[in-house]
Design goal:
Layout lengths: L1 H26 L6 H5 L2 H23 L2 H7 L2 H12 L7 H20 L1
Helix pairs in contact: 1-3, 1-5, 4-6, 5-6
Length: 114
């Protein structure tokens, strides 16, 4: 159950970060003030997703030692890299992909411990 909660926290945080990206992209080239920006649906999705991720993270911390749980959040690095590549069509170099592989290996080692 703990690992499912860690994954849920990562997915919610990732969703929040994607929503942030879409929010700022929707502001690009539009001369607008704070009121316009606060009405952006993507911004509110980011708030909700990140808030829910925080609540799930608190549940994770009740169940796992912080030394195990916190490094597992590095899965966000993997998820955001995949989103950047396949959703935003960003170039990811070989060194970055090697970092992703190392992060996955580290999380797998920690997951086996939890």
């Amino acid at each position: 159950m703990s690992l499912i909660l860690v994954l849920a926290a990562c997915l919610l945080t990732c969703l929040g970060q994607i929503a942030q990206k879409y929010a700022v992209e929707s502001w690009r080239g539009v001369p607008s003030g704070l009121a316009f920006k606060l009405r952006t649906p993507w911004l509110w999705l980011a708030f909700v997703a990140l808030g829910a991720g925080l609540l799930v993270w608190l549940l994770v911390l009740q169940r796992l030692e912080v030394g195990i749980a916190y490094p597992m959040l590095s899965l966000n690095f993997v998820l955001i890299t995949l989103v950047a590549r396949f959703l935003f069509d960003e170039h990811i170099d070989r060194r970055h992909w090697m970092g992703v592989v190392l992060v996955i290996g580290g999380v797998a080692l920690l997951g086996a411990h939890a």
